[in-house]
Write a structure and sequence with these properties.
Elements: H1 2-40, H2 43-48, E1 51-54, H3 68-73, E2 79-81, H4 86-98, E3 107-110, H5 123-127, H6 132-148, E4 153-154, H7 178-193, E5 204-210, H8 229-236, H9 238-245, E6 250-253, E7 257-258, E8 261-262, H10 267-277, E9 283-285, H11 290-297, H12 302-312, E10 317-318, H13 322-332, H14 338-354, H15 367-372, H16 377-390, E11 392-396, E12 408-412, H17 438-446, E13 451-455, H18 464-469, H19 484-497, E14 500-506, H20 525-536, E15 541-546, H21 554-559, E16 562-565, H22 573-581, E17 648-655, E18 659-660, E19 665-674, E20 680-690, E21 701-710, E22 715-723, E23 729-730, E24 736-737, E25 741-748, E26 754-761
Parallel strand pairs: 1-2, 1-10, 2-3, 3-4, 4-5, 5-6, 6-9, 12-13, 12-14, 14-15, 15-16, 18-26
Antiparallel strand pairs: 7-8, 11-16, 17-19, 19-22, 20-21, 20-25, 23-24, 25-26
Helix pairs in contact: 1-14, 6-7, 6-16, 7-9, 11-12, 12-13, 16-22, 17-22, 19-20
Length: 763
Amino acid sequence: MKAPSLYILALLLTTATAFAQKKSIADQKMNSFITNLMSKMTLDEKIGQLNLLTGGEATTGSVVSTGVETKIKNGQVGGIFSLTTPARIRKAQEIAVNHTRLKIPIIFGQDVIHGYKTTFPIPLALSSTWDMEMIRKTARIAAIEATADGLNWTFSPMVDISRDPRWGRISEGSGEDTFLGSQIAKAMVKGYQGDDLSKYNTMMACVKHFALYGAAESGRDYNTTDMSLDRMYNEYLPPYKAALDAGAGSIMTSFNDINGVPATANKWLMTDLLRKEWGFKGFVVTDYTAVNELTDHGLGDLQKVSALSLNAGVDMDMVGEGFLTTLKKSVEQGKVKQQRIDEACRLVLEAKYKLGLFEDPFRYCDEERAKTEILKPEHLAFARQVAAESFVLLKNENHTLPLKKTGTIALIGPLANTGANMPGTWSVNSDLANTKSLLEGMKAAAGNEVKILHSLGSNLLSDAAYQERATMFGRTIPRDNRPEQEVIDEALNLAKQADVVVAALGESSEMSGEASSRTDLEIPEVQKRLLQALLKTGKPVVLVLFTGRPLTLKWEDEHVPAILNVWFGGTETANAIPDVLFGAVNPSGKLTATFPQNVGQIPLYYAHKNTGRPLAEGKWFSKFRSNYLDVSNEPLYPFGYGLSYTTFAYNNLKLSKNSFKPGESITVSIEVKNTGNTAGKEAVQLYIRDLEGSSTRPVKELKGFQKISLNAGESKTISFKISEEDLKFYNTALKFIAEPGDFNIYIGGNSRDVLTEKFTLVK
């Protein structure tokens, strides 16, 4: 047995050594090339590489928006975003490589957030699949399509942890959990970048927003962030680091301030932490006009804040042109060192080199690929599968779902007949005009066997001005300006003719996302009045809930028989929802953000600290304990929660041993059985609690999960390995350590309903 083991070890060492040598040779070649190029560059040309502009999407005349062509010819543009198609990008690139002194190519970026033309569910929904390979593949397909359309850089993944659903951009991230968020961050980066950035169908990832953006005060976008280093290092920073450790080539600054200094001018964040502590070798780009906005933060005029930003460690200025117009003057005045500009320029050039742009500036400009690799049938089929697996069944009383393909269904609500809202927020590349509505999808799925009746039922919002704000960017939902009761009565007449009512209610796609913060997280009142009226008909009602964030659904949970949260599922939403409603797909999504009972509980998340006066489990109110007078501490739906058309039983939680030392590990196993009558998928979740530490520790922390498939009646034993590494945290000295002592382990189908055992780390 020893010989094969030694042989394999030797083979692995040889392979690793060969890979390291190959990488070293490649790095030397790149460094030599860039050093030679930079030796020829003027200061103006170096500063030009730090300038990122938006190209617009001109359809006639100029290739790009006014003035950009001239800047390209003058060597004043390092990158362009918001310009697509191989033909347009080729023309812009030709200006750079044929009409500039040094022929330096441009990098082309875009907000490819949850798919390109084939749009997948919004990121919060994607995270609800708990399927890392599926998530990686969505990014892989996005990269294939985007690069086929000329792009090579994506402003994704967004890895901001958020525990405040008032913040609109919670829809663009992976929820509240550090561990899950880190796993998703790695999967997305690997999907975009693959194993070789120079390949024609991979693109550079840009991790955002660095840092702590999801913790904006009061859930208001762009607002101040303030937190302790303990919380920062243990809860908010790990997903950024995970994405960078996975090889992400760039990172984007956040809009908020941190310890009183905005991220875009924060040297501790961009240099001390990112470069020195984490060893990041890629380049840093600002968010849209973030340098200019430092003036409104109160840090000085454009020249001053541009110098502050560059000196802090920023390498590229998005849109604001402060670097372009002021840095040379700052060098002349001694406020910026030439060396710092050289460092930033080198990092931008390295990114272009790694993308293969110096070898072939037009490698992403293949018009044949654009014709054959975008919206491929297999991409759409996969998008349909992903959407269905992202949906979360929140309630299913008396087996209301799945629906039978017989009789009459009344499909009612403002979200029932709007294809443009189905892709969700930040789907800038989606073909909204040709995206099917739920009504179209239901009719196609039902065929001739089911009669589908449809009515608007209510406006999205009673306030017309609010509805206009909530349906921007082509996501319009027509309003019915008749008296509200008349619109409801029309819907009730249809409901009375039906066997079951499907109510398509909730948010429009633009009620979440950037600059879409909300203080009221209930379903809009005008929609709720419709829902109440539908329930009074006595017909079974299924609430198909559209949302980009956790909502407060206490009344709905108490009164509606079935609630299916479909988020916004992307291009194939209209087909995926009927797949689940009619039972072709058994829902398996699990929440990655806690749903509160009301907004007064926010922030509400499972991995909270215990306090010195914790409320006893199962209690509501106890004087001089940490609780409320008017509502329990419990969420409406906990983290990790999601029902199925079948049921799962957890039994026989076992540990291979009750204690272990550093360098050792224990194996935890549990038996999971499908106790229902249909096949289904279950996300098995493992949590740990450190019972005694040098600083306060959360009551539970996710440390592992596996998504499994079980046929009816089938059982599987699921195993997890726990080592010292899984028990580490940053102590008060910011040392990443595991402390000896007792730990609880919990396994279950969500963070609340778990089986428990205990083990000890011995030192």
